[in-house]
Amino acid sequence: MWKEVRDREAGKLPTSAFASRVRSRRLSALAICNHKEIISPHHGAVNSLQVDLTEGRYLLSGASDGSAAIYDIQQATEYEKGLIAKHKSLFVVDKQHGYGHKFAISTVIWYPVDTGLFVTGSFDHYVKVWDTNMAQVVMDFKMPGKVYGTAMSSVAKAHMLIAAGSADVQVRLCDIASGAFTHTLSGHRGGIMNVEWSTSSEWILMTGGCDGAIRFWDIRRAGCFRILDQSQSQFGRRPPFPERTPTEVVTRTAAAGSSSVNKLISKKKATLGNGKKQSQAVCKLQNLTTSHTMHKSHPGTASSYSRATAHFGAVTGLRATRDGLYLLSSGSDSRLRLWDIESGCSISVNFEATRLQTNKAIQLALSQDSSAVFIPSMSNVKVYDVLSGLNLQTFYGHYDMVNCCYFNMQDQELYTGSNDRHILVWSPPSSSFSDMDEEERKRLNLKADEDNWSQ
Amino acid sequence: MSVWNYVVTAHKPTNVTHSCVGNFTSPQELNLIIAKCTRIEIHLLTAHGLQPMLDVPIYGRIATLELFRPHGEPQDFLFISTERYKFCVLQWDPDTSELITRAMGDVSDRIGRPTDNGQIIHGLLKYGNKMKLQIEIVVFEELSLLIGLIDPDCRLIGLHLYDGLFKVIPFDNKGQLKEAFNIRLEELQVLDIKFLYGCSRPTIVVLYQDNKDARHVKTYEVVLKDKDFVEGPWSQNNLDNGAGLLIPVPMPLGGVIIIGEETIVYCNGTIFKAIPIRPSITRAYGRVDADGSRYLLGDNAGLIHLLVITHERERVNGLKIEHLGETTVASTISYLDNAVVYVGSSYGDSQLCSVLIKLNLQPDAKGSYVEVLEAYVNLGPIVDFCVVDLERQGQGQVVTCSGAYKDGSLRIVRNGIGINEQASVELQGIKGLWSLRSSINDPYDSLLVVSFISETRVLAMNMDDELEESEIEGFSAEEQTLFCQNAIHDQLVQVTATVVRLVSSTTRQLLHEWNAPSGYSVNVATANASQVLLATGGGHLVYLEIEKEKLIEVKHIQLEYEISCLDINPIGENPNYTTVAAVGMWTDLTVRIFSLPSLELLTKENLGGEIIPRSILQCTFEGVSYLLCTLGDGHLLNFLLDINTGGLSNRKKVSLGTQPITLRTFSSKDTTHVFAASDRPTVIYSSNKKLLYSNVNLKEVSHMCPFNSAAFPDRSVWLYELTKKVLIFYWLYGFFSIQCSANDPICFIFLCLAIAKEGELSIGTIDDIQKLHIRTIPLGQHARRICHQEQSRTFSICCFKNCQISNEETEMHFIRLLDDQTFEFMSIFPLDSYEYGCSIISCSFSDDNNAYYCVGTAYVLPEENEPSKGRILVFAVEDGKLQLIVEKETKGAVYSLNAFNGKLLAAINQKIQLYKWTLREDGSRELQTECGHHGHILALYVQTRGDFIVVGDLMKSISLLLYKHEEGAIEELARDYNANWMSAVEILDDDVFVGAENNYNLFTVRKNSDAASDEERGRLEVVGEYHLGEFVNRFRHGSLVMRLPDSEVGNIPTIIFGTINGVIGVIASLPHDQYVFFEKLQANLVKVIKGVGGLSHEQWRSFNNEKRTADARNFLDGDLIESFLDLSRSRMDDIATSMGVTLEELCKRVEELTRLH
């Protein structure tokens, strides 16, 4: 690190390269954390984890006992022997809570804009929106079946929609602003395990179902516009962009969005106008990729006949890369697939020796530059290089199936939740112990070889 | 509260990042365009060298600078793209000498990952005119990747901004830009992209690295119709592992040169030629010939090579490389013309070199074909600096660690102009000082007339270049001289209280005299070569004209009051005659302009106030005529003077000192300047048609006159050697012995100033007239840390140099001790192998009066990611030597050291550690661990104030710690929870801290000690955000200017910062009412001053990092605010009106701010 610091100050190392080098170095040094512990209050499997997107400070966890908890991961609640930071939950909402979930919480997410709200989804068919400060439910949505997954778009400027996937075949979009469902998206032939918003457009939603299909939706249009097909894989050169690339449209939308608030009206116009163009593009693309099986009909309805699958069995995990180019999916076929979002083709990457939980939605995590993916693999967590599929590392530490992982990009820390009810922290090593001077150790009455079993 | 901050640049960026050459300002003119990160400079290539035409700021960090010529255009356009994904196309407007924006836009995308390895920037141009040169310029930083390039046939602009995407902006038939589109680029680890010449379809050649780290080259054709690539004509696999630079070769040869670390390869699909080279990293190239057969290559050791492609019938049959010589480490190379090359550097001074590439020319004695003609100062990268007052005048100077590699140096940066004293004599009671020449056309001054209360003495330069007493027979020696001057027809004129004497300068005999009427004595007088104006008691104003051997009284008027000062300095076209005279009056305190010879009153300007004018001067700077008038209290008024009507306008008032000021003109490098002699001597000069005031490094000057003599040479002289066809410029420093042959008709004009100080007459040379004066101490090694010790009057630096030990490049690190006056090395302490110096301070400890240097080091072992061992070394300076007193081993790199409550506070990797200074039983000293604080990722930057410790973390922003004396422990009080990657921190006051971070932003945070909840108290509130656009390496408290206690700005606290680009900037914490006022002014200025290329100021200054963008707040852009003074009068008036203040008031307030730096 020292050399990088020096080269940066002399201008020899560009600052962005400095940051990415430090990050990748820290990433490659991840190990079970020796200075930080999260004290899990849960009495059941930890199913979902997320750190807030604004400050990177509060970890939210949801567990099978119907409880959700929040921890401050920056500021420890206490220190053991002055060194090991213990992070106890700031508060827990569980079955005892008046409005708590009755059954297992399968998914927890933060409201992306601030830490004032969070969302939980449960097997009791409810999606609940909580006020963080009051620890109270402010809104709930009754879903037709067990809720498996929820998602909110972090790039959204024009909507506050929670996409929720449940045991029902329809994806529902719950609007926090109105408290009602705004959309039901039909197409899947099984329950929906996973929902994921596009990282480049606030209108694009990707869902993975128990039917093995991954469908792409433009929520401004009826029907789904793309179904990923595992047989459509891409060798060699990627296909070109369609004539009018959605990216460009997005760029302009974004430009309009970043203008001041009082131009809201013009912004809306802009997005509508561009939306049309985009969907034309989408139609064209649709025709390009799937026209050989399709008749000329409405792309939305046409797609509902498609039986293309992304995985054999259910799609258990979905994660889009931050650059908006790729989608990673995991399935109950124990496979991990990488997809090119633009073309909808699967990119042939051989992820070595994956073995995945088959009966449950799992939560994948990506590193900051999306070069590495963290995958719960039975009771371990495996790290793969996204583009080559190399297994970079395997984390052993949990005693039971791992359900979820979340990578905190701010601190390069990984949090994993497991059926063993623990939340483990994996972090780059801190030499707090080793660099302590003798005199200080004496002061703290610590001996390196002492543990609870010593006399 | 230091919440409201004003950020201003005291020294502009000097790090040359890009340069290119072309016909930008006119089809006939050849221009060199230089980018200095956030500024562009346009130079014109003339027979006399480079002539600056324009220097403008860009609201962005320049990522690409390209000249290109769309079809049908007679001259080139300039394409600029910025690191925040804006681009613009600029054209020169010959009428206004400004830049016109032809096109602009935003090329950012929501998808794609920024090519985060940095940037490569390419230029590629083609001239229609075959006589002109074709030039390519490249900046290459290792692993760098934001690329912008233009097709040689101007069909499209290509940009590689995000991994896997290639953005194309096509041109239409009329040369207008069309809508951009993206093409997927298969290769993710792209090292370089270039367009190939001579292809029917635009073809790019891509140098990339695969995931097994092997490097290959591939070509793609861009099909505009399909908006896609098709596989290009050829590719080449498995190149040199260090291949990093592509040079496309123009037709008729075509193809591309691939520069590696050990080989250079030419290939074009059919021919493949390779030659081995000495291992080196080539950073820049410049094409010499239009046909692309020769290139100059510059590597990171500063060596320049010539690469020659040998070819036969347009078929390449080999490559040849020749070592030419050494320059500064080049970041860009631009071949100008006639073997003159501009070498732009990021790590040392940029240079203009003459490269003798003709094979028949012989190298000089050192085997070098390179001759440096001119050097342009570059302070970057400023890695560290300290603020000291070496001359003990109450004015800070900045001593920077600048440069890198072999160009490492110390730079002493001082506000104001240096006078280097060459000779002095003790002379009491000097009342006036004039220099005379033996004839009016003589280039040298040979006589110095010194006037005393009742006598006048003449000093002359003798054959041994010494001043000795002389005599002018015709002069009155028993009287005080009021004025004397060389006059036309080889005459001299002397004015005393009673008489005006006209003396022959050859015979020195009196020719004619004019006597004051009896009962009246002359009070003040002035003269030029053909006119004399004098005033006697009773308000009589007498105008005389000088003719051959005759003084003629032309006009005589009486004014109602006594005259205090007058001036007839010629400002019109005739250097010997003026048609206007300026007169300052007692009693009614006016300045009056009279016409000559009629002595008609043209203008009367009331000065206001109660202070009489003491000295008045009319002069012309850069073609603009001014009237300067100083008051008895040290203020200076300046007006624009209309020579024809005598009208005065645009009144401005500044304070230069506290005592009466006398004004005198002098010239240096053919430019007129004014010397204001007072208790705070100042040089007044003009730059960009704006008057600037630079103080001089002298304490008090009562009189000054220019004294140009052969013995005291001007420090810089251009010598044009016209005998050879090649124009060679010699840049001469300091003294040199004159070795002109008898037949050489060149004259040397040396400028000196004769200065009368308290009881002393001295003669000195003057530095270049510029606001900041920079002195360079070359080190030949890279200095990283510096500190000054007052007690021993020494500097100590941590530095290193690269050494070659048995084929392995290693670094040797040292601690060096330098004298703070002479900057001579006094002592050196080598560190262990692998041991690097990281931090250095001078401090003393409690119970010990000695001052020590404390050095923190790290053992950087190749196999370790992070140093796990380091040392703290405590040195005392004894007999000018560094004496190691104590060493203490640490468990990591000592990134920072601070003196803290008589103890030593060290930042060691993740930890803050406090050491106390204890006495052992045997009387020796030791550092003993007291307490520490964990919980940082890397505590890189630490500042302390009282018991408070502010830590800037590698990636976790700022945290505030408190040392608790009773418990002997350090605890965290508060923290900023944002993820800022810090590069420097400083404490502004008890509550507010400023930080600089990795994305070129500044921000301030405030301690919330009064907040209600623990949670809020534990959080440092972000109160200010600002995009500086510069990477700050260091903040230091201090000021570059003398603080006058009476001025309003005297009490504004300032800190100085230094950046990678060589910027020295000032952050001033303004009082709230001032901040509000200037914020309003800034808002008004943004509407009036448009950014070059239509770039928005608001967007440029908005805080921006990977996560978010937010408008700047609680920071003001001083550079913008101070550019108010450059506006035209009418625009200034408009702004003053909308601000609701008078223009004079507004100018005064802005000018006061300019005196902060």
TrEMBL record, chain B:
InterPro entries in the cross-refs: Beta-prop_RSE1/DDB1/CPSF1_1st, Beta-prop_RSE1/DDB1/CPSF1_2nd, Quinoprotein_ADH-like_sf, RSE1/DDB1/CFT1, RSE1/DDB1/CPSF1_C, WD40/YVTN_repeat-like_dom_sf, WD40_repeat_dom_sf
The primary location reported for this protein is cytoplasm
Where in this chain does the record put each RSE1/DDB1/CPSF1 C-terminal domain?
814-1126
On whether Transferase is a keyword of this UniProt record, the answer is no
- SUPFAM superfamilies assigned: Quinoprotein alcohol dehydrogenase-like, WD40 repeat-like
Keywords noted in UniProt: Cytoplasm, DNA damage, DNA repair, DNA-binding, Nucleus
Q: Which branch of life, at top level? A: Eukaryota
Location of the RSE1/DDB1/CPSF1 first beta-propeller domain:
16-122, 149-354
Gene Ontology biological process terms from the UniProt entry: DNA repair
In Gene Ontology terms, what is one molecular function of this protein? DNA binding
All copies of the RSE1/DDB1/CPSF1 second beta-propeller domain together span: 420-717
Pathway membership: Protein modification; protein ubiquitination
**Cellular localization per UniProt:** Cytoplasm; Nucleus
Q: Which family does it belong to?
A: Belongs to the DDB1 family.
Indicate what this protein is called per its UniProt record: DNA damage-binding protein 1
Q: What is the lineage of its organism?
A: Eukaryota, Viridiplantae, Streptophyta, Embryophyta, Tracheophyta
